[in-house]
Amino acid sequence: MTAEPDRARLLARIRREFDVVEERLTFGARSLAFARVADPDKVLDEVCEQETLREKGIPPKRELRMPYWAAVWESASAIGEHLAQRDAARPLAGLSALDLGCGMGMAGAVMAMLGARVVLADIDTAGLLFARLNTLPWAARTTVTRLDWSRDDRDERFDMIVGADVLYDATQWAPIEAFARRHLAPGGVLILGEPSRIGADGFPVWLADLGWAVTSSERVAGDLTVRIHEARLAAGA
Amino acid sequence: MTDVAADTRTHDFIARTVEENPVVLFMKGVPDQPQCGFSAICVQILDHLGVDFAGVDVLQSDELRQGVKAFTDWPTIPQLYVKGEFVGGSDIVRQMFEAGELKPFFVERGLLPA
């Protein structure tokens, strides 16, 4: 089985539902092919139309969520760059990694490119076809799956769990922390990026109070500053 | 494609809007006639709480719609800002309302009587 026919088939399947842009993106010294939704607004408009219809009593095609997956968030690009840079000192090759809330799979694709075994997971399945497409060159060591971090468990532990902009809703901090605690291998690291939202200011201290050792760095992306927190559970915490 | 001057103008307009108005809802349509169910939900919730707010229709111009998304890297509309602070989209607003957190949120900021 070769990747090219798979890619063509997947792309054709995605294009039946979405307009697609394919780009070559560079992270550190390496680059990857990345396919994304051409017009996220169009996806949002469609969800809005279905919501309006739902209110009139016409049931939607699938569960109506805001299509956060359809845009590439700055935090995902920033984490990709962070990981590519980090890889020079602490290689990802051979590590097991989870992209939590993967959307179209940018962070997961970067980790796969760098040699990690990666699970890409999101609650919204609409983006998972993109995540599969974007990790196809490393299909042998990537898994793409639906996952609700507040309810679901994976039957495995990870050396690295990565989340891009998953902290905007403070009610999700506790479920994310609990999920990471259950799913990090001993010595594993949790890496979270978020674009300096006021509501997330308190997160590093909140996490440290639960026994995590947190180090934070910043990465400028256009008008935004993405904060990247790396956290490890202290022994016995 | 992107016009830097226009981007700056739009950015300044958004920054000024959220600075000058304590409660701003960037939405599709206007409060009296929302153009999408998610915007309508936010309007209903704010009206129900009796909060004064400025509704800004992002469908006025594509520049504004793109600018609002870039302003805090939030990809969807509606977006609620309170005292210059981005609160969230319709799901977060609804969740805070249903959890009984939204009214105290406005009360603490002096935007509703205790």
Concise overview:
With 237 residues, chain A is an alpha/beta fold. Chain A has seven helices and nine strands, in the order H-E-E-H-H-E-H-E-H-E-E-H-E-H-E-E.
Helix content of chain B: 40-55%
From the alpha-carbon coordinates, what is the Rg of chain B to the nearest angstrom?
14 Å
* Chain-averaged pLDDT of chain A: 93
Q: Give the CATH superfamily of chain B.
A: Glutaredoxin
Mean of all residue-level pLDDT scores of chain B: 93
The CATH architecture classification of chain B is 3-Layer(aba) Sandwich
User: What string, H for helix and E for strand, traces the elements of chain A in order?
Assistant: HEEHHEHEHEEHEHEE
What is the CATH class name of the domain at 73-233 in chain A? Alpha Beta
N-to-C span of chain A = 46 Å
Uncertain residue segments of chain A: none
Specify the CATH architecture of the domain at 73-233 in chain A. Answer: 3-Layer(aba) Sandwich
